[in-house]
Amino acid sequence: MTPYRCIEGASDVLILCDHASNAVPADIDLGINPALLVKHIAIDIGAGPLAEALAGRLEAPAILAAVSRLVIDFNREPDALGLIVRASDGHAIPGNEDADRDERIARFFAPYHAQIARTVRTRRPALIVAIHSFTPELESGIDEPRPWEAGILYNRDARAANVAVRLLREAGIVTGDNEPYSGRILNATMNRHAEAGGTPYLGIEIRNDLIADDAGVARWCEILAKLVSDVRNHLAQERPAAT
């Protein structure tokens, strides 16, 4: 199976969704109850539909993962322990105990990131937007409940993030600044495809109960379409004029 799917668009904004799918190839046995595949450990709930809706609203190209993060996590470095998880939020993933790491990287991870790299190289986007979702509370109880409606993640490049946090808070949305986790720790895809080349980006996290149905996706698509457009326009105004 192809580890990603692409949406065409003419905009200079590129949309990515690392955890859009809960699909597991037929030849991979994770050794888990299939009911776990609808949980946040397998997929960013609502993120795929939201990314697709946002791409349509902005007429933007998008690349969405087509494999569950329980098979391989596209938003990790290739040498990260969490690339192929053996347990997630208190659930064991026994089928990953003896997984062939190199084979999964070659089969899924490398083609996905190669496609993003090609798109960035050929399209030269003015802004890259990564869509994720987070659970209100971990099942394992190892963390406090998460009160934010949205979070903006970033590492060193905060050009777009600072504007987005301000705009969301001005709109009355409870917004985490590098919450519910820090982009200085968890920002692999954006580090590779945005920061490394100097492209501004937004790492957007939406609480998954807010986008778990069509109405929630539609509402947040409108919110994010305005946000992304405003941030992109702000960056364009800030960019030094060509001489």
UniProtKB/TrEMBL annotation:
It holds the Pfam family FGase. It comes from Sphingomonas suaedae. SUPFAM superfamilies: Zn-dependent exopeptidases. InterPro entries: N-FG_amidohydro, UCP029730. Gene3D superfamilies: Zn-dependent exopeptidases. This is N-formylglutamate amidohydrolase. The lineage of its organism: Bacteria, Pseudomonadati, Pseudomonadota, Alphaproteobacteria, Sphingomonadales. Keywords: Hydrolase. One of its GO terms (molecular function) is hydrolase activity.
